[in-house]
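User:
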Amino acid sequence: MKKIIQTANAPAPIGPFSQATAHGSTLYVSGQLPIDPTTGEIDGTDVQTQTQRVMQNLLAIVEAAGATPADILKCTILLTDMNDFAAMNAVYGSFFPAEPPARICYQVTALPKGAIVEIDAIVALS
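Assistant: Predicted structure:
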Protein backbone atom coordinates (compact mmCIF):
# COMPACT_ATOMS: atom_id res chain seq x y z
CA MET A 1 0.00 0.00 0.00
CA LYS A 2 1.23 3.49 -0.88
CA LYS A 3 1.90 5.97 1.92
CA ILE A 4 2.11 9.73 1.33
CA ILE A 5 4.96 11.58 3.05
CA GLN A 6 4.42 15.26 3.81
CA THR A 7 6.40 17.73 5.93
CA ALA A 8 6.14 21.46 6.58
CA ASN A 9 9.96 21.58 6.51
CA ALA A 10 9.92 21.36 2.70
CA PRO A 11 7.83 23.36 0.24
CA ALA A 12 4.31 22.25 -0.49
CA PRO A 13 3.87 20.72 -3.96
CA ILE A 14 3.09 23.25 -6.69
CA GLY A 15 0.96 20.77 -8.63
CA PRO A 16 -0.98 17.53 -8.32
CA PHE A 17 1.78 15.46 -6.69
CA SER A 18 3.06 14.51 -3.23
CA GLN A 19 6.37 15.49 -1.68
CA ALA A 20 7.09 11.76 -1.54
CA THR A 21 5.43 8.38 -1.63
CA ALA A 22 6.54 5.24 0.13
CA HIS A 23 5.75 1.70 -0.90
CA GLY A 24 7.21 -1.22 0.98
CA SER A 25 10.84 -0.42 1.70
CA THR A 26 11.23 2.26 -0.98
CA LEU A 27 10.64 6.01 -0.80
CA TYR A 28 10.25 8.07 -3.97
CA VAL A 29 10.94 11.77 -3.35
CA SER A 30 9.51 14.16 -5.94
CA GLY A 31 11.83 16.61 -7.63
CA GLN A 32 12.66 19.41 -5.23
CA LEU A 33 13.08 22.99 -6.33
CA PRO A 34 15.04 25.64 -4.40
CA ILE A 35 11.89 27.00 -2.79
CA ASP A 36 12.11 28.30 0.76
CA PRO A 37 9.28 26.48 2.58
CA THR A 38 8.58 29.50 4.81
CA THR A 39 8.23 32.07 2.02
CA GLY A 40 7.27 29.95 -0.99
CA GLU A 41 9.87 31.84 -3.05
CA ILE A 42 12.96 30.65 -4.92
CA ASP A 43 16.01 30.86 -2.63
CA GLY A 44 18.95 32.45 -4.43
CA THR A 45 19.88 33.15 -8.02
CA ASP A 46 23.12 31.16 -8.26
CA VAL A 47 23.44 27.39 -8.56
CA GLN A 48 25.30 26.99 -5.25
CA THR A 49 22.57 28.66 -3.19
CA GLN A 50 19.82 26.90 -5.11
CA THR A 51 21.49 23.48 -4.77
CA GLN A 52 21.90 24.04 -1.01
CA ARG A 53 18.18 24.79 -0.66
CA VAL A 54 17.15 21.88 -2.90
CA MET A 55 19.18 19.46 -0.79
CA GLN A 56 17.79 20.89 2.46
CA ASN A 57 14.26 20.40 1.12
CA LEU A 58 15.00 16.90 -0.14
CA LEU A 59 16.60 15.82 3.15
CA ALA A 60 13.70 17.26 5.17
CA ILE A 61 11.40 14.89 3.28
CA VAL A 62 13.79 11.95 3.62
CA GLU A 63 13.99 12.56 7.38
CA ALA A 64 10.19 12.92 7.65
CA ALA A 65 9.98 9.38 6.25
CA GLY A 66 12.38 8.13 8.94
CA ALA A 67 15.42 7.79 6.68
CA THR A 68 18.83 9.49 6.49
CA PRO A 69 21.07 10.75 3.68
CA ALA A 70 22.94 7.43 3.88
CA ASP A 71 19.72 5.68 2.80
CA ILE A 72 19.49 7.59 -0.50
CA LEU A 73 20.06 5.12 -3.34
CA LYS A 74 19.80 7.33 -6.43
CA CYS A 75 19.27 10.97 -7.36
CA THR A 76 18.32 12.60 -10.63
CA ILE A 77 19.58 16.15 -11.11
CA LEU A 78 18.17 18.60 -13.63
CA LEU A 79 20.16 21.72 -14.52
CA THR A 80 19.16 24.49 -16.91
CA ASP A 81 22.85 25.07 -17.74
CA MET A 82 25.45 22.29 -17.76
CA ASN A 83 28.09 24.99 -17.24
CA ASP A 84 26.81 25.01 -13.62
CA PHE A 85 27.72 21.33 -13.18
CA ALA A 86 30.98 21.81 -11.22
CA ALA A 87 29.50 24.39 -8.84
CA MET A 88 26.38 22.27 -8.27
CA ASN A 89 28.53 19.18 -7.79
CA ALA A 90 30.61 20.84 -5.05
CA VAL A 91 27.51 21.66 -3.00
CA TYR A 92 25.75 18.35 -3.74
CA GLY A 93 28.88 16.39 -2.78
CA SER A 94 29.06 18.10 0.62
CA PHE A 95 25.84 16.28 1.58
CA PHE A 96 27.41 12.88 0.83
CA PRO A 97 30.93 12.81 2.34
CA ALA A 98 31.06 9.00 2.10
CA GLU A 99 29.34 6.44 -0.13
CA PRO A 100 27.30 8.83 -2.28
CA PRO A 101 24.21 7.53 -4.07
CA ALA A 102 24.08 6.64 -7.75
CA ARG A 103 22.95 9.56 -9.85
CA ILE A 104 22.33 11.03 -13.26
CA CYS A 105 22.36 14.66 -14.37
CA TYR A 106 20.57 16.19 -17.35
CA GLN A 107 20.45 19.65 -18.86
CA VAL A 108 16.89 20.82 -19.45
CA THR A 109 15.47 23.84 -21.23
CA ALA A 110 13.57 25.20 -18.23
CA LEU A 111 12.36 24.31 -14.73
CA PRO A 112 9.24 25.45 -12.85
CA LYS A 113 9.29 28.89 -11.22
CA GLY A 114 12.51 29.80 -13.03
CA ALA A 115 14.67 27.49 -10.91
CA ILE A 116 18.06 26.45 -12.28
CA VAL A 117 18.34 23.11 -10.44
CA GLU A 118 15.93 20.35 -9.38
CA ILE A 119 16.77 17.05 -7.66
CA ASP A 120 14.69 13.95 -6.88
CA ALA A 121 15.64 10.78 -5.00
CA ILE A 122 14.92 7.11 -4.47
CA VAL A 123 15.52 6.05 -0.89
CA ALA A 124 15.71 2.74 0.99
CA LEU A 125 13.49 2.59 4.07
CA SER A 126 14.12 0.31 7.04
